[in-house]
Specification:
This protein has two domains: 2-199 and 299-385, no CATH class; 203-294, Thrombin, subunit H (Beta Barrel). It is built from nine helices and 26 strands. The chain has helices at residues 13-28, 45-56, 104-113, 139-149, 227-238, 248-251, 297-313, 329-335, 339-350; strands at 2-9, 34-39, 60-65, 69-71, 75-76, 80-87, 90-98, 125-132, 155-160, 172-174, 177-179, 182-190, 195-199, 203-215, 218-222, 225-226, 255-260, 263-267, 269-272, 278-280, 289-294, 320-328, 355-360, 363-366, 374-375, 379-385. The strands form four sheets. Strands 14, 15, 16, 17, 18, 19, 20 and 21 form an eight-stranded antiparallel beta sheet that branches.
């Protein structure tokens, strides 16, 4: 049986850790086997994590900085929220890999080296929550490497750490240690299936383009012309204002979709370069077919609900104990107060099951029959069985 406790606080540092730690032990009836923490970048993370560890002595603990936090009960910025697990039929292992910018193969190997399910057949289902320093980049490549190293038998979900849309410094937590240029993972081995659902609700809004020049997160050209030309033409055709010096208001409503066998994977544009290239929030593959995508507030809520239903349907009749939700900071910025409708849509599908999550700099989902890898503006839901 697995028990899940979800809670949040607006208290700071040590006070937050003490409050959350006491509540976790009270709700679970003892220390958690695993604890996941999403904390505002304005927190003193070391003090928070140290106090939290002392207050509830988790078996393992990971987490990251965030760009907006939410649970079943509250949402906003400046908070700390946690999801704690106590289980007699799951096994949890925490791992970390450093050096994402310089040696992702070594980072992936370090993460996977600690996984117990790669050598044991005791547990039927293998999953891992992965949180990465998004500003280090190359998250797509990291997930691909972890997938290869684990032989494709794990389901991965999670997201990129945030810093309230400042794009200055994002961190991950491994126990009480706070790191940049790193990724952490919580391996979950279970006798019951864990559900992972993915959906984004965006549709093509114009013509298709070939990515003729791209390097990492820099999109150089579409159809051999500066990438910004395609966005200029789209803005003119749709009657939208597009200021190259302040492009975010336009980009939040007009993201890039990259075609894949499973559908469109989204990339959020962030800035226009002097050469007409565009900086994106995640890697854009050279040679891919792409288009500019559009959506509505209703579509975002519908997509989150669809992701939740998909995750719930994978539990094979087992009741749910709790859930994680990851969605993009761009979605929250675009929707404003309407982002609450997305959270309400998730809760409606979950019923009285609690959830916790944060607004990410990219979402991770690697699961059979669904979109793969690293995404933007996409709802990822993971449901934990009781």
């Amino acid at each position: 049986m697995t028990k899940v406790a979800v809670m949040q606080t607006s208290a700071k540092a040590g006070a937050a850790g003490e409050e959350l730690g006491r509540s976790i032990v009270d709700q679970l009836g003892g220390p958690p086997d695993a604890l996941v923490v999403f904390a505002s970048p304005d927190q003193d993370h070391v003090e928070l994590l140290t106090t939290l560890t002392s207050a509830c002595t988790p078996g393992v603990m990971i987490g990251c900085s965030s760009a907006g936090e939410f649970t079943s009960d509250a949402s906003g910025v400046g908070m700390t929220c946690v999801l704690a697990l106590r289980s007699d039929d799951m096994q949890f292992t925490a791992t970390i890999g450093h050096g994402l910018r310089t040696d992702r193969n070594a980072a992936a190997q370090a993460i996977v080296a600690g996984f117990q399910g790669t050598t044991s057949v005791e547990y039927r289902y293998r999953s891992a929550l992965v949180l990465t320093d998004a500003l280090a980049g190359f998250a797509d490549d990291l997930i691909d490497r972890i997938t290869v190293l684990t032989g494709g038998v794990y389901r991965f979900f999670g997201g990129g750490a945030g810093d309230d849309a400042r794009f200055e410094r994002t961190t991950v937590f491994f126990g009480t240690a706070v790191s940049t240029d790193a990724a952490v993972a919580l391996e979950i081995l279970s006798q019951k299936p864990i559900g992972v659902g993915v959906s984004h609700g965006w549709e093509p809004g114009g013509e298709r383009f070939r990515v003729t020049d791209a390097a990492g997160m820099h999109l150089g050209s579409l159809n051999a012309a500066p990438a910004v030309d395609a966005f200029d033409a789209h803005a003119e055709a749709t009657g939208q204002s597009f200021d190259h010096a302040a492009p975010i208001p336009f980009f939040l409503h007009n993201v890039l979709g990259v075609e894949s066998p499973e559908g469109y994977r989204l990339r959020v544009p962030l800035a226009v370069g002097d050469d007409g290239g565009i900086a994106c929030a995640a890697d854009v593959p050279r040679g891919a077919t792409s288009c500019i995508m559009t959506t509505t507030a209703e579509s975002a809520a519908d997509a989150a609900a669809a992701a939740t239903r998909a995750a719930m349907s994978q539990l094979e009749g087992h009741p749910a104990a709790g859930a994680f939700l990851f969605d993009c900071v761009a979605t929250r910025l675009r929707l404003g107060q309407q982002f609450e409708a997305e959270l309400d849509a998730v809760q409606k599908q979950l019923g009285d099951i609690p959830f916790a999550g944060f607004n990410t700099y990219g979402q991770i989902a690697q699961s059979e029959g669904q979109f793969n890898g690293f995404h933007n503006c996409t709802a990822v839901v993971c449901v934990i069985p009781a």
